[in-house]
Amino acid sequence: MKRETAEKFNILIGTSVTNIYFSETRGLISCDNMFGFNFKSREKELSLHVFSFLRVRDDKNLYLTTKDEFVDKNYRHLTKSPASWLAGTLMKKRMKSVRNLLKKQVVTAVHLLDCGDLFIQFSNGMFLEVFVNYSCEDYEYYRLMDLKSDVHIVVSYTNGGLCIQEPDGVVFEQYEPVGFVK
Q1: Do 133 and 58 contact (CB within 8 A), yes or no?
Q2: CA angle (105, 110, 116) in 5-degree steps
Q3: Which residues are paired to 100 by β-bridges?
């Protein structure tokens, strides 16, 4: 990963989580649902939209993963997703807990790995980890948006490899990392 590309994500450092939300986007704008994380400081207002696998953890506990949407609060696997299904999932319960744990926590470090995985560390020792988990063409893993300037950084699988770009097509980096096979 080019240093200047990775540094674009450092805009998160010094911001605090203001909201965490979930949106059903499967089949509409993505093949997966979306998690949203809003961050804010005096100067910045950012939003991270995640369509790939994520987890929230600390050194000892796992608090939330994208797979929690497929398990009910009694830890039974769900095979259907009716319109009202979110209310009965483990994810809804875990999101409330994570919202409380991350609320007003400051981002202290951001790591963008060569494979596109994104790790965000908070002042209370918790981590938000976003993983590149598909290799299908034109799949968007996540995007970071500066809501004040409307600048987006999109991380996707495009033209046979990982691509980090602005939505208007300006490519910061395009390559095929180890582990992606055509």
Answers
A1: no
A2: 130
A3: none
DSSP state of 182: -
Q: What CA–CA distance (Å, rounded) separates 100 from 45?
A: 20
Identity of residue 161: G
Partner residues linked to 164 by β-bridges: 155, 173
User: Could you give phi then psi for residue 105, rounded to 5 degrees?
Assistant: -80, 140
- Structure tokens of 147? 């809501």
Q: Which residue has the tokens 């409307």?
A: 150
pLDDT digits (tens, 9 = 90+) for 56-79: 999 999 998 877 666 656 656 654
At position 182, the amino acid (one-letter code) is K
pLDDT digits (tens, 9 = 90+) for 10-54: 999 999 999 998 877 655 555 567 889 999 999 999 999 998 889
Give yes or no for a contact between 115 and 136, defined as CB atoms under 8 angstroms apart: no
3-state secondary structure at position 165:
strand
